[in-house]
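Quick one:
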Amino acid sequence: MRIETFESGDREDWLKLWQAYLVFYKASLPDEIGEQAWERMIAPDGDISGFKAVDDDGRMIGMVTFLYHGSTWSAEPRCYLHDLFTLPQSRGKGTGRALIEAVYEAAREHGADQVYWLTQEFNYTGRILYDKVADRTPFIKYGHKL
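Output:
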């Protein structure tokens, strides 16, 4: 397995993983949201970055997206790991960890002082990994859809 940046030719494979990710989180979004996310990720000046995990046969088996933002609590930017998904058959084999570590490295190179993310409480498999690679914070998320 190897971790690589996305290329424009990865669109269809990424969209398949994106749709599976939405199913996992019991979410439904219009197709144009995924298309916009893809365009923002591969644009040279896009505000979203990402990596893919590729198996030895060249098949995409996982993906991660992330973005940088300023913070009133730090002089350095923060890195928000937005989406992380691996195919079920790739779980427990280091794919998710490798994707997270790739984000850590990219964030270090970008000068970020922190990488953080959210997950749903029912994501027990993901949380087992997250407890090994990061510290759980006491924050509770609130939101209001506009």
